[in-house]
Structure formats: C-alpha cells, structure tokens
Amino acid sequence: EVQKHSVHTLVFRSLKRTHDMFVADNAKPIPLDEESHKVKMAVKLRTEYGSVLHMPTLKENLREKGGPNTGDPYGHKQYSGNQGQELEYMVTGTHPYPPGPGVALTADTKVQRMPSESAAQSLAVALPASQSRLDANRTAAGVGDIYRHAGMSERSQPPGVSVAMVEAGGNKNSALVPKKAPTMPKPQWHPPWKLYRVISGHLGWVRCIAVEPGNQWFVTGSADRTIKIWDLASGKLKLSLTGHISTVRGVIVSARSPYLFSCGEDKQVKCWDLEYNKVIRHYHGHLSAVYGLDLHPTIDVLVTCSRDSTARIWDVRTKASVHTLSGHTNAVATVKCQAAEPQIITGSHDTTIRLWDLVAGKTRVTLTNHKKSVRAVVLHPRHYTFASGSPDNIKQWKFPDGNFIQNLSGHNAIINTLAVNSDGVLVSGADNGTMHLWDWRTGYNFQRVHAAVQPGSLDSESGIFACVFDQSESRLLTAEADKTIKVYKEDDTATEETHPVSWKPEIIKRKRF
What we know:
This is Pleiotropic regulator 1. By secondary structure, the protein is mainly beta.
C-alpha cells in the first residue's frame, strides 16, 4: 500500500531532489562563446576607437611591442608588407582599410606600406600641425592597444594613458585622459552646539516660533491655542495671548510696525497690536487650516499658505486679498518672502516648490525634484540661494531660476523645519526629534543632536516642529512636541583641535533628482 503524504511534504521532497540534482552546477560561470566575444570586441572597437583607427603607428611603438607581427590576444591575423624590408609606417584603419577585426583582406583593403620618407612627410602634412609634432613617447594607439583596452571604459584606463585622437573632422585634437572625479572641498569648521535651557509652560505641542527684531523677546504658538511671549535672556514668560480656537501654526513679528501676526488650523489669520495686546485685524479668505505665514521685508504685505492648496497675499492695512496664488495640487506647507525676485517661494505636500511673481500673482518656476512633501524652505541671509527640506533629501538651489546646487543627504526623517545663519550653519529639525547641523557651502553634516524629552513625556513625543536663530545668531531656539522650547548655544570651550572635522575628501555622488 502506498503511503499517503501531505502536499507540503511532497513539494518539499521535490525541491530537495531538484536542489541535489543541480547543486554541483551552482555558481558555475557560463562558458565564453568565442564567436560572440569577437563580435562584441569588433563593435566596441568601432564605436569607442573609430576616431583613432586611421592614425599612423610610429615605428618606435612597433619595436616596443615586439614588431608588427606580435600576436594579439584575440587571435586575429597580423598582416605586414614585405618581410625583408623594415617598415617606417604602418597604416591601419577602417577606411579604406579592413572595416573591422576578423575581416579578410583583399587586394583593395590590404594594409599599405609607405617605405619612402616623402610619403611619410606628406602624411604628416595631412595631419594638424600640433599632431605632427607629437613626441616619440606619445604615440598613436596601435591596433594591439585598441584591442587591449576595448573591454574597458574611458575612465577605467590606467593613469597616464594618453591617446592622441583626431576627431571626425580631422582638424581637432584632444587627449583621452582619465578625468579626476570631483571631490568635496574641506568644510569650514563650526563649533558644536549644546543645549543650555529648556523652557516649559505650554500645555500642547509647540508648533511655531519667532524672535522679535530687537532680540529682547520671542513668541511661540501652540496646540493649546495660545500664543506666549517669552523673555529671550531669562526664558521667563512675559505674556499669553488667547483668541485662536484651534492649534496656532504660524507666528511672525513685524519689523516695520508694532504688530504680531498669527495663523492657525481654525482658518484664521490675525494681526495683534502689541501696544494693546489685542487683535486689531482679521484676514478672511482661506477655506481650510492656515499652515504658515511670512511678511515681505520692504512692503506692507503678508503672505499666508494653507491646506486649501493656495497661498494668499494680503495688504496688511486694508486687509484686502491682493492675490490668490493657485497652482499647487495639495496643501501648501511653507511660504517665504524676500525683497529680490522671485519675491515669494512656497513648498507643498504635492512635492513641488514654486517661485512666484508677486506683481502678476503667477508662477515663475516650478521645481519638481523632490519625491516627497516639502514641509520646509529657508533662504540664506547673505547668498542668493535657498534650501528645501523633504523626507527624501535637503536640496539647495540658486535664485532666481531655481537652479539645483546639491543634495544634503543623511537626515532620514520627516523634516519639519530648516534654519540657517550668516556663518553658514544650516539646521534641520525632524519629526522624530533629531536635529542635524550642516555646513552650508559643502553640505557636510558636522553635528547630530537628539535631546531627551521633558520628564513625564513619552519618548514618542520627541519631535521638532520649528527652529529659529535669534537676531545675534548666537542662540538657536526649537519648538518641540514635548511641549517645551529648547535653547541651544555654541560651545565656547570647543576648538578645532578638541572637535576636529572628521572629513574625508570623498568622491561626490550628487544626483540631479
């Protein structure tokens, strides 16, 4: 009687039998087919070295290689002129000579010899002047050399290989020399930053932060629906403002008037008079939560961005909506203003960055390089450049057209905020509570910080929503998910000897996207 087995057992046995049958052949290379290898070499020869095949081979080169009859590694026949005479030049090439390796020579395609000096001189005259003055040690590529390097790319040739090349027109010459790969320049040394104060007082996530132009105090907005004003030197609470009915997502203090602007998830944009600590203006128009705002540095214009996929430009005094900037296809997460063109920059959850024409209210440029939501944009205070942050990369760009500069890779998290100072320190803050500090010019990541959460908070409440440098740029303030504001300063005791740059001149691998 045949014993019955489960399907699982039968399949397993079949697998084992198959494995045992083929285990001996495992990882065996496929045997090389001579014919196809010759065809491959012929194609490579013609495509990569077609421009130098018609060049003359100097006799010094022939002697060095052991004469014209030295066998080549692929078993192709070598043809020469009369054996009794020494050849001064041997002309090899594709036209009117053999069209490629392995092609039989006929009376028409036979390699010609030029025993007379006058013929050699006439050949030299036919070449460009610079070509005819090549030294004996810098010879043209012989057929043997070409076969030898046919399997190698241009960059993989040994250093010092220099092959004279006459291009198709016959009037240009250049050298096939290995190019040196670009390397990262040495980054500027920056002292490390250390945490020196933790300020608590909010009852919810601290979502936004701004320092006033006089550098005396700073303001924060929170998920507890309040706006709090703090003394910058002591960290003491000066004032709380209530009025929003949902999370406050953006705050900014005007340098041109005693006003504070705020926006929130309640769709409201408010203007507070700081002499009376009261709301004096509302800006109505957004159809959903307002995620960010910025003031124009030279004119009385406020720009806000919202989950309704638009950004709006407001006249501060009349409360009129001057333009609605539409074009994004998802929530607009961040907006920045500057005096130079383009005056408005937005980053969106549709993965694009848009540079806007303020006067026309239209898009000038759309940057589509990011693959994920762009939650943060920062403008360099001195250079005509900016950076954008996304979970895939931090990217740097040039104004006015948004030309790509470089990627800053390594902060593998949802980047909520970016800040940069005049010294070239770029800070990126992420949803997982990590903060990376970068050298702006080289993109070198010189410090990584992950501060502990406030006692009593969960580890999951480690997150940085906003960060900003104060006006002196000696303090860095972060707004965090553990309901605190953390203040960092440069470590005064650090020197380049105690904290050296652990930098290696690595080959840069910069991607366009």
